[in-house]
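Render this sequence as a predicted structure.
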Amino acid sequence: MNILIVEDDPNIADLVAIHLRDLPAEVTVRHQGWEGLDEAMSGKYDFLVLDLMLPGLNGLEICRQLRQRKQYTPVLMLTARSEEQDKIVGLETGADDYLTKPFSPRELVARVKSILRRTHGESRRMERQLQRIERGALWIDLELRIVQKGADRIELTTKEFDLLHLFMQNPGRPYTRLEILDEVWGERFEGLEHTVNSHINRLRAKIESDLTHPRYILTAWGVGYKFNDAI
């Protein structure tokens, strides 16, 4: 893990660095605001410790600019101020927590670990959400390769799963049979178009309630197939 400390007081910066290296972590220290922003924007850090009052550019502005540029590295803000309003401003700017000087090294480490647990959990949750696609009662889990319709698990072959993933990921987009062959089979030969038809038929038989009126995988007349974007 790589941690950046931006603190203008060398003694405090050294104290923080010593204890964070025990996490364990690789620690980099910067003492100037603009220098700290440039370093933070490099994207190579997993955690930032920012002093509120810095020469050149304060910690609040560093945090604000990072969030504006869609950088969401966890931030612990350090400050000698204890007013509630300062804490509110820091948290609203995008800091994950706020620690008032003087502080004990044990509290510092505990705060950092707490933020890392919280943000790691959120990252995992978001990652899991991205691995799952839902359309109506039908959903697939890309990581576990599970397909379910309502409470019922649906068993698919590898190619049937890949077909369904392609369609659910791009609802409303019509695919020709050749495009499907290219995307799912990695081949684009006209002689294999019947393979697409047979796989679509088998897939429909597993996920559709009424094969005469498909709800999920629709025929795109004159083109091929598409997933119903009205679901």
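Summary. The chain has two domains: 2-127, 132-227. The two ends are 43 Å apart (CA to CA).
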